[in-house]
Specification:
283 residues; alpha+beta; Phosphorylase Kinase, domain 1; Aminoglycoside 3'-phosphotransferase, Chain: A, domain 2; 2 domains; five-stranded antiparallel β-sheet; 12 strands
Length: 283
Amino acid sequence: MLPPPVIHYLKSHNYGAIQSTRPVDGGCISNGVILWVASGETFFLKTNRRAPADMFAREADGLEALNTADGPVVPRPLLWGDDFLLMDDLTPAPRQKDYWPEFGRRLAALHQHTNLQFGFAHNNHIGSTPQPNPWMQDGFAFFAEQRLGFQAQLAYDSGLLSATDKKSLDKLIARLPNLIPAQPASLLHGDLWSGNAISDRHGAPAIIDPAAHYGWAESELAMTTLFGAFPEVFYRAYEETRSLEGGYRSRFPLYNLYHLLNHVNLFGRSYLEQIQAILRHYV
């Protein structure tokens, strides 16, 4: 069943009744469906009856923050509730010939939007896991406490992370200032793996399903390599647009510990070997 507020919204905004729907594959946390309405337009609806009460509201906040003139395209949030989010349908077209270099340039431009503090206006979610975003001046403290430390404690409390691995992780956290260069707080998508990089109706770069916050730009680039790296031309175009500290790719495993820990919390111990390999390398 479609949420009644969605049906009412479409009718009250003169789009007419919903004529047909089509489920969309690919969602690990929520369900997606395309809605065709009487006016001939289409909309994208995400639903999740088990979603935390504020998950979709915070996702809408993230989409609005990421809607910059120079960044990748994002869908416009239209209506949301505890268990749904209605958005514009980007109607992805085949990617433009220069999709990947343009994506690199646009992501670099997005990261040029900076803040004096790390965090975000609201806490949100990474997948369905809470993502705390208190404003903090120190990027190292923010990543240590609100990213690695938070996820590690969740995994430890649920019996997914051993005391030995948590102790190693604590040692690594203490070394972060010696392993990672100081960086400004950049506006990030926050969950930028290949599945969240799509195109709009013109084939231009677009991003969906954010966990938006202000954090280290290198951490965003790191996640683009976690489940199959983006093409090399993407990274070259990014570097041509926004300078990076030398050797930034060697630091990717450090940043990706956050997402690997989150995947342990979401999906179980199958990601522990990758975490342990990173810990062995650094500790």
